[in-house]
Amino acid sequence: MLALGASLAVTAIAAAGTVGKQVLSGTIQADGSSTVGPYVQAAAQGFEKKNKKVRVVVGISGTGGGFERFCRGETDLSNASRPIKQTESAKCRDKDVRYVAFHLANDGLSVVVNKSATWVSCLTVEELKAVWDTGSKVSNWNQIRSSFPNVPLRLFGPGTDSGTFDFFTEKINGKSRRSRSDYQATENDNVIVRGVSGERGGMGYFGLSYYTENKSRLKVLAVNSGSGCVKPSIQTVQNGTYKPLGRPLFVYAKRDSFQRGEVRAFVGYMLNNQKSIATKADFVPLTKKQLARAKLFYKNALKG
After folding, report:
1. Are 149 and 244 spatial neighbours (Cβ–Cβ below 8 Å)?
2. Are both 279 and 166 inside the same structural domain?
């Protein structure tokens, strides 16, 4: 009954893009994760078609950069590829910024290589750690595995403001932000695409959506965490077999902003249409259980 009630609450707010008989208008400011950004942009396109007087502005400054702006009160929504940290939450609290988090989609963080890297299709977590850990001196593919060819290794990855960086380093290297620094770091995932696709020995990592958009230019690797090689996909992320790089994606809403009809309706629209938005933007939809929980959070947020 809770899931049904939550679903009805979402539908009541977002059904026609109105709150009561009021036509929605205004600007919604969102910023944060470069991974979650395309999801929110895809949602914004559909929402704006139904609500001609609402504009959703989506910035991409990384999860950490997004939370910085959010906790200063500059944005209504903060897109995040990881949960908010205690230090970030404290900054929000200091500025009297209260918020509610919504789990909107799932992702399988993807390790990609150059299309010409025919020698590799799967790496173990231990091999990835050997490459990416603090102090790593691995600079050639034959240092990863002796059967690999003598090809210089060129690394590309997210910058330190990225939630993807935090998540990858925690799951692969054992501690968040523990990473070698001698790689090309960027908050723009398209730079990673260009770098890896332009270097025969290139390797990088980012969200599944960016691989899906660029699969004609890149090769995705399977990851072996001890139970065999598994590639990221909707099925493997949802059933939990893509370990340890499957993850939830979030949108944080400032409670003061959530009191505005257009913000409430936009979040409701994302929940009501999460499956189609996720499919359009190449993300992994929520499971039924996850969606019921997200809608319950929405229902509770409506109560203040």
Report:
1. no
2. no
Question: What angle separates helix 63-71 from helix 86-94, to the nearest 10 degrees?
Answer: 20
Which residue in 258, 272, 265, 299 sits closest to 104, CA to CA? 272
Residue 83 has pLDDT above 80, yes or no: yes
Rounded to two decimals, the pTM is 0.80
Nearest to 250 by CA among 84, 96, 98, 10: 84
Dump pLDDT digits (tens) for 153-207: 999 999 998 999 999 999 999 999 999 999 999 989 999 999 999 999 999 999 9
For residue 254, the SS3 value is: strand
Look at residues 185, 219, 238 and tell me which one is the last residue of a structural domain. Answer: 238
Distance CA 27, CA 74 (A): 12
* CATH classification at residue 117: 3.40.190.10
**Residue 272 and residue 11 in contact, taking contact as beta carbons nearer than 8 Å:** yes
For residue 33, CA distances in Å to 65, 127, 146 come to: 8, 27, 37
Residue 286 lies in a domain: yes
Which of 183, 216, 238 is the C-terminal boundary of a domain? 238
Q: Could you give the CA distance from residue 61 to residue 161 in angstroms, rounded to a whole number?
A: 8
Taking a C-beta distance cutoff of 8 angstroms, is the pair 142, 148 a contact?
Answer: yes
For residue 118, the one-letter residue type is T
Domain that holds residue 12: 2-106+249-302
